[in-house]
Design goal:
Keywords: Chromatin regulator, Metal-binding, Nucleus, Zinc, Zinc-finger. By secondary structure, this protein is mainly α. The protein has 7 helices and 2 strands; from the N terminus they run H-H-H-H-H-H-E-E-H. Among the domains are: 124 residues; 53 residues, Herpes Virus-1 (2-Layer Sandwich), CATH 3.30.40. It has a two-stranded antiparallel sheet with strand order 1-2. The longest helix has 96 residues. About 17% of the residues have low confidence.
């Protein structure tokens, strides 16, 4: 129930109250006026009675006393009626006051309930918002973790274009030298393939640069990643694993291949 409805309800109940109060007060004033007139008559008759009591006979005195007593009884009735009207008037006003207090109490209860409901709704909305934010933060963290994991798994390549060309030339020279050495000394072509380009090995290396492959050197040239997620090395130079092109399908490094064959 809204405040306007409460107000309209109380105004409707109070509509006839002034008329009823005016009627009761008018009757009380009329009864009071009659009672005063009777008391004045009683005073006059009592004065006459007291002044003539010695000369009156017993019958006349008794009649006079009966008249005075009758007027007293009548004045008492007026007083009782006036008291009843006053009680009715008080109860009438008190009834409206109690109704108003009851409506006020209900109205305050509804306001408190509505405020509590709004507070609960805001808290639920806030908790849902915080929950969505936590989920969003978790997703962002997962994406950031996956991105950082990919970045950490992929080797950093510091060689610039000129360095790459020099590395490629050095690799060709190394291959030629390896072939000649194999022909002269009898060392197989696999051992020659592991040889690193001298230009690459002579390049200044950052001590913070991560190392890879079986040779424990920095990233250079073409490299391939082992498909075993638990591989301790992960990335390998093509020459070190005797590759010239990227193989199709999954590829495992020599150590992981040997471990897989043992299993």
């Amino acid at each position: 129930m809204t405040s306007a409805v409460y107000l309209e309800h109380n105004l409707d109940s109070l509509e006839h109250l002034p008329i009823e109060l005016l009627r009761n007060f008018t009757l009380m004033r009329d009864l009071d006026s009659r009672a005063r007139e009777l008391m004045q008559n009683i005073d006059r008759q009592a004065s006459v009675y007291l002044s003539n009591v010695r000369s009156m006979g017993s019958d006349k005195r008794k009649d006079q006393m009966d008249k005075i007593q009758e007027q007293f009884n009548k004045a008492k009735e007026y007083g009782d009626d006036k008291v009843q009207l006053a009680i009715q008037t008080y109860e009438l006003v008190d009834k409206h006051i109690r109704r108003l207090d009851s409506d006020l109490a209900r109205f305050e209860t509804e306001i408190h309930d509505k405020a509590a409901s709004n507070t609960r709704s805001q808290e639920e909305a806030g908790s849902q918002k915080r929950g969505r934010k936590k989920i969003k933060d978790k997703d962002v963290k997962k994406k950031a973790g996956a991105s950082s994991e990919d970045e950490s798994k992929a080797p950093r390549k510091k060689a610039k274009k000129g360095g790459a060309k020099a590395a490629a030339g050095a690799k060709s020279a190394a291959k030629g030298a390896g072939a000649g050495s194999a022909g002269n000394t009898g060392v197989d072509s696999g051992a020659a393939g592991i040889a690193h380009p001298s230009d690459v090995l002579d390049m200044p290396v950052d001590p913070n640069e991560p190392t890879y492959c079986l040779c424990h050197q920095v990233s250079y040239g073409e490299m391939i990643g082992c498909d075993n997620p638990d591989c301790p090395v992960e990335w390998f130079h093509f020459p070190c694993v005797e590759l010239t092109t990227k193989p199709k399908g999954k590829w495992f490094c020599p150590k992981c291949s040997a471990d897989r064959k043992k299993k």
